Amino acid sequence: MLDRIEKIESEATAAIEVAGGTAELEELRVRYLGRKAELTTILRGIAELPAEQRGEVGGSANRTRTALEALLERRAGELDATELEAQLAEDQIDVTLPGAPAHPAGHLHLITRTTRQIEDVMAGLGYQVVEGPEIEHDYYNFTALNHPPGHPARMLQDTFYVQSHPDVLLRTHTSPVQIRAMEAQPPPIFVIMPGKVYRRDSDATHTPMFHQVEGLAIGEGITLADLQGTLEEMLKAIFGSEREARMRPHFFPFTEPSVEFDVSCFQCEGSGHLVGGERCNLCKGQGWIEVGGAGMVDPSVLGFVAESGYDPELVQGFAFGMGVERIAMLRHGVPDLRRFFDNDVRMLEQFS
Fold it and tell me: Is 220 inside any structural domain?
């Protein structure tokens, strides 16, 4: 029995010393020290040996088991270190290189891109870009723009007021910047005013927050014909050189006369019908698409800035405005205004 224990120790020691990996070492542990191993069987059978052999055989078997356990632990540490070094050498990463795959570069939101396009077009026509506060005073948002007390636009169901300051509100249009711009400089003035505006609307074509771009031109001898020419140049630059513009009578409190302006449909080329003869779904068969509102600045509005040099007897001009989201929807075929604000990457990535 003692000879067998010695042989087991010799075989196990030789095998453990040459083990090539942690997996192989685990197999050796199970073979020589596992529940079904020969050495374990000998230890379990000590009680069945004659009394005079139990002490010597038991002591030898336990010493062998302890020695093999220590050898396995030492060899496992050696193999772990070797395998870790090999893995680190194989998995070296150059941290100075970009990740793989590289993250795609971002891009401007479609609303921002459309706003900048309009700004570029108007800058080419000699207009400057000016901005104003989104939290506005009643005077600039309504009073100075010829909205008398009791005007529907002043009602709570249309406008967001600051509860603690009833004369302070979220601007409902960018027109207040017209008054601020005229207060800041004498005529002539040619400016456009992009920015966010706020109204109590929410459906497929309206949101509580949206974007507008307005234009203002004041000087001597400016007429409605100048407005027509400006609108034509702007709409051709945005929708294509073949486009035409038209104006229709309308009413706005701060312009007189007031008009709405349209662009000829770029899907049916203004005919109202598609190639197959069916009615154009974009212009609803009209051949024209409504874009925004405009008109000659009302003399009463100029009266609020007369001290800045805007004498309605000496100067006159026009103003126009349009929704940036509407322009983007028309140019890119977006059916629902709310998609611009959903932050759905699938939708946004289409306009990269």
Answer: yes
